[in-house]
Amino acid sequence: MNEHIMVDVRNLKKHFTKGGEVLKAVDGVSFQIRKGETFGLVGESGSGKSTVGRCLIRLYDYTEGEVFFDGQNLSKLRDKQLKPFRRRIQTIFQDPYSSLNPSMSVLDLIGEPMDIHGIYKKADERKEFVAGLLEKVGLKREHLYRYPHEFSGGQRQRISIARALSVRPDFVVCDEPISALDVSVQAQVVNMLEDLQAEFGLTYLFIAHDLSMVRHISDRIGVMYRGRLVEVAESDELYDNPLHPYTKALLSSIPIPDPRAANEKMAVKYEVPTAGDGVVPELREVSPGHFVADH
Ligand SMILES: Nc1ncnc2c1ncn2[C@@H]1O[C@H](COP(=O)(O)OP(=O)(O)O)[C@@H](O)[C@H]1O
Ligand SMILES: [Mg+2]
Q1: CA distance linking residue 77 with residue 71, whole number of Å
Q2: CA atoms within 13 A on the CB side of 35
Q3: pTM to 2 decimals?
């Protein structure tokens, strides 16, 4: 396959040191995301998903490894050289309450990233572009001069999405973008993300801790367990033919769609078997496109 690789993560490690203890949040993760694809990243809370996302946008410097974006090795770039990539790579976070500055109007919330990157210097053009984006995310022009507290959670997430898309990115890290939303609006937001992906030719990393929505949106899925990928496969293949015992455990614990239950820790009873020397197995391809790290 000679499909265009948008994101190429090679042996990424991010270790945190806390009071002399080393926490291996991400410990040797490799995967690729093709242009226009949605790559889902799943795993229990604390498995390192967000840390991978933060390394990709270089919010964190990483301990080891490399991240290539559209052929460029971001690992080596300094702040100034990273600036164009900080436009091309955007993020949507889980919590639409804390990620929007409450004292800014919708116009400025969505306009701010464009100001930072010097897009639309004329106020009227900027406003028209923002109004157009608002409509694309299912809001209205009359919302331009309102403030975050005047919106529901789902609407705020729509504002966050418009904000991320305002600078016309190529790649969006969606870090649990629907987890904090009412179940009734989750599907709407996911469908909208898919429509926007098709319209703007976006590539997504879609992070989630439950699997119910990820199957629907993802082309391929990587399963994370304690800082490592234990299985990577096409979405349907992963669900129909999970090979790693942790993936099987995770799939059998798909939470019921109840917002209160979704906050409870999923009970995935599983310990990754290591070889006698404590070495965790590497991912290997067991059928075309299906990788598993198992003995
Ligand atoms: N800035 C940080 N400093 C120290 N530890 C962190 C930091 N960010 C994340 N961690 C730790 O790294 C591990 C993975 O966290 P995270 O990537 O947020 O997991 P996930 O997104 O899968 O829930 C957790 O044990 C978490 O406590
Ligand atoms: Mg997270």
Answers
A1: 13
A2: 14
A3: 0.91
